[in-house]
Design a protein that fits this description.
Length: 177
């Protein structure tokens, strides 16, 4: 597992959930993978997208769950919203981030589909307890000061002249195989 993008990555995380779930669109192929983890002192929990079996880019970064919960608190529990409303919780700018996060949050029971409006979501009543629930789960401690975590990130894609290719965000990576 590679280190996610954080201002100061934790030295270790307790990974409590690593799953694959269907995407939100019935037309979309493949599954998306994500992980939930927390720092051992339980001061913060984190979410990370890990895979996209159907192709397409996404940002592999550890997003603080508190940032996600704060964003959900801004959204009305009574009004439906599109997945793109979750875009700001990521540092990376991949267009798929918000919808992949939404699919994971639906699987977690934090969001639910609006029965009246296609492609709209609603905050579930259980959302307020989600962060605390993560801390009750047990998992495997992963250290990020290992040789695997210290491997350099791949060089940004460049064109024939050696210039960085436009539209490729350093925080965005192709899906894992």
């Amino acid at each position: 597992m590679k280190r996610g993008i954080l201002p100061t990555p934790p030295k270790e995380l307790v990974v409590v959930r690593s799953v694959q779930v269907p995407k939100l669109s019935q037309r979309a192929d493949g599954l998306i993978g994500y992980q939930l983890a927390y720092v051992p002192d339980q001061s913060e929990a984190f979410f990370a997208l890990t895979s996209n079996a159907g192709g397409g880019y996404f940002s592999k970064e550890w997003v603080p769950v508190s940032r996600i919960v704060d964003k959900l608190a801004e959204l009305s529990a009574e009004e439906a919203f599109p997945a793109i409303a979750l875009k700001s919780v990521f540092v990376g700018k991949s267009v798929n981030n918000a919808s992949f996060l939404a699919a994971a949050l639906v699987a977690e029971g934090v969001l639910k589909s609006d029965p009246e409006k296609a492609f709209r979501l609603m905050v579930a009543p259980e959302a307020k307890d989600w962060r605390d629930l993560i801390f009750t789960l047990s998992g495997e401690t992963v250290r990020f000061d290992s040789p695997e975590a210290d491997k350099p990130e791949p060089e940004p894609k460049k064109n024939k002249r050696g210039a960085k290719v436009k539209g490729v965000d350093d925080a965005d990576h192709p899906p894992s195989e």
